[in-house]
Amino acid sequence: MPKSPVSPDFIPTIKRRDFITKSSILTIGFLFSRHLGWSRSLKPVGYPVHNIPVNKNLDLLWVKSLYQRGKPTIYLKSRNELKYIGMPVGGLHAGTVYLGGDGRLWLWGIYNESEEPKNEGIDPKTVLWNDGNTVRKIRSRDGASYVEPAIAENKRVLEQGFAVRILYKGKVFIKELNENHWDEVSFQATYPTAIVQYTDHHLPVSIILTGYSPFIPMDADNSSLPATILRIEVKNLSSEKIEVSLIGWMENGASKLSAKKGDGKKVNSVMPSEKFKGIFSEFNFSKNGLFTATDSGTTSFAILNPKAGVHTAFNTWPVTDAGFTSGFSQNSEMEAPEKLIGALFTSKTLVGGASMKEDFIISRHFNNPNDKLKELVKDAKEGYYYGTKFKNAGEVTEYIASHFDQLSAQTELWQRTWNDSTLPHWFLERTFVNIGTLATANTYRFASGRFWGWEGVGACAGTCTHVWQYAQSMGRIFPELERILRQNVDLGVGFRPDSGAIIFRAENESRPAIDGQAGTILRFYREHQMSANDDFLKTNWQNIKKAMQFMLAQDKNGDGMTDTPMENTLDAVWEGEIAWIVGLCIAAARAGQAMAEDMGDADFSLVCKTYLEKGRKNMEEQLFNGEYFIHKPDAAQGRKKLGSYNTCHIDQVYGQSWAHQVGLPRVLDKEKTLSALRSLWKYNFTMDVGPYIKTHQGGRPYAVSGEGGMVMNTNPHNEDKPYGENESWQLGYFHECMSGFEHQVAAHMMAEGMVDQSLTMTRAIHDRHHAAKRNPYNEIECSDHYARAMASYGTFISACGFEYHGPKGYMAFDPKITPENFKAPFTSAEGWGTFKQSQTAGKQLNTIEIIYGKLRLRTFAIKAAKGMVIKNVLAKMNGKSHEVSFRKEEDRYIIDFKSDLELTPLQKLELILS
Hints:
Blueprint: H1 16-22, H2 25-33, H3 60-65, E1 74-76, E2 86-88, E3 96-100, E4 105-109, E5 127-130, E6 135-138, H4 144-147, E7 160-168, E8 171-176, E9 184-190, E10 193-199, E11 205-212, E12 227-236, E13 242-251, E14 264-272, E15 277-285, E16 298-303, E17 309-311, E18 332-335, E19 341-350, E20 355-365, H5 371-376, H6 385-389, H7 393-402, H8 404-419, H9 425-432, E21 443-445, E22 451-453, H10 465-468, H11 473-477, H12 479-493, E23 495-496, E24 501-502, H13 514-529, H14 535-552, E25 577-578, H15 579-599, H16 602-622, E26 631-632, E27 648-649, H17 654-661, H18 670-684, E28 685-686, H19 690-695, E29 709-710, E30 713-714, H20 739-751, H21 755-768, H22 792-800, E31 803-805, E32 810-813, E33 821-827, E34 831-840, E35 843-853, E36 855-862, E37 873-877, E38 880-882, E39 884-889, E40 892-903, E41 908-913
Parallel strand pairs: 32-36
Antiparallel strand pairs: 1-9, 2-3, 3-4, 5-6, 7-8, 7-13, 9-10, 10-11, 11-12, 12-20, 13-19, 14-15, 14-18, 15-16, 16-20, 17-19, 21-22, 23-24, 25-26, 27-30, 28-29, 31-32, 33-34, 34-35, 35-41, 36-40, 37-38, 37-41, 39-40
């Protein structure tokens, strides 16, 4: 990143444009010279000096560039950016299948091996890491894949690929779709689809591979198919006629890992159909009992071209002319453990400018969870959810082929909708990409319908409440899954109806966690909001109320500040009154008040309101040190146990952050909250973590020297023993950069108007995961594809200033980036679409368009341009006027429709404010 000699530590009260245009370098230098005194203090005995610079030394032009729309990120072979890329393309909860940078599939984590501690990560290994002071051994769950990312070429479990044969000017060219065969290969990262393009400077053809699995927000079932779709398009760029042949091959994956010689035979058989030509792959056992192995199942490989040729046993290596002709239609067999590979091929003559397109489907069906998983969760014993829909991989293929136009069109429609925005492409990529965690071996959906997940792939069981409550993606993209988790687990197998406690790992634990309890209450409110009606809340209200009462009861001294020692997400039981836990419980109390109001439960609403008001007053008076919020030690225990005490903790105002995510009124004073966020920026964020982790030992490598990030907990005033008398192993967490926590802070900063800081933090995470260094699709914490990283979607929510309450028919926007010309996607209870806003002198136009499903709307809230006083609101849907009334509340206008509006695709609502 380019740097300037002196640059600002952004002041949130100064608008970015005004700051950049009005501030002189001399003024900027003066602003910060007075803040440097603390860093000159002598190092205290026993604890390293705080060494994060106040001046972030950011180039203003670089910061300005973060706002630019730009283009989708493209990774190139010529820049050595392809080897780590692994985009999940295998369907939600159906194992891990990666699309590599050159279009080949790899990893194939489909054989039910992810378990603790056997196979914790994507590349389960221990590596050596030099943290700048010592060389340490790093386990998979501690970030080994961050230090040494998995390389696609080393993890190709199954043989799979494509090749083209081109007859041009009398010469035959045969090239595999493999980066070694092309002058250039580019990978365009626009999840849930990716586009791989192959270039040979001597061939007049354009070859593009598009890879994805059906991914349709609000349609969890059709997004959970255990299959990958690979579309290949070849276009003749010349004016001459050329002959093009295309072949794809796929290894029989049945019993790939366990079958030994003498166990039986691999069998490939042709799947005839009017819609496709396919190969069904299975294993015929010669012994009983082997069919229960975790890799016992079926795969299939198909092309949506019933006239295509077939090789049920393909062994032409390297691919030659013979591979593109003379297929066989009969079955083929192969003794284990030899490979049996099937291939499909087709040819076409292309005149100048013409093109050909073929869609391939790779399906699998391995419905045997491993024994460890069955021990952890009883639902696993009956197999997976997709196993209730399909008997084998062939049925998966038949379903996709029969519904291909719908599945493909709706996936591509979402991809276009998500990217059709004024927000920067890089920002859209980073805030959305972690939803791909659901399409890895980190999550499962069992035959019962239950959703279940690790914290990271194969590590830390039980859909842990104090981790998963940070994740904002699933609740907005697949709200059905979150409702299932709330109702069947948090209020089901993990619930204690006698006390109201929610066990933080359900049947995999016996204790509640206070942050998990509070965060789950906020999730109850979000899931209510993301419902079309109030059935979810009505059905579960009595148990939600019990969960609320349990949380409120953890305030032993009645001051509205939780003080019962309980487990928290930093794997410790802290004593005292802790700002981030107190604030989170206050926010949960406000959510409880809102739910009670929606239920007409006035008495309980008052209980929650009283707790909120008392807790907020005391937290702001007792836990704010003038700069940031702290941890007040227990009166009896003092600092004997581990805690954050007077240090600057990353989650200190997390409760207010959560409140923004669900459109609650403020739960903490705005100025104190902004001061806390500025302190986090000042004391915890650095563009190079190297000097800090070199002196503050023990943390895991989720950001390394030369990379930027926000450190979890810092000691800015250089106290001795800042984290208490007992420096337990959990102290190492404080020196790390964990992206899920960072995303939470970035989302909060965005919501509070600290846009420069929010974008800078998000970009630091984005750059840490650039394909030149590691897999852009895998944000690592405790193992791979860590669930907390799905907090990234919260920053997108905040950038839109989006609020929604389905049962009330309420929606609101407050764009934080280019509000004068803004466009972004949104999701609702029953559909998704696009919101647009344009502001000109004396006029503002807001447009809501539904693209999929439907939207019921009764009330809409929006801010007007600065200085604009609204005197008239005109509402039109497809040109027809609708009667509205409007009023101003604080700094925004509330527009009420005389009757509910229902928007469906091709309908557009326009609101003209003047």
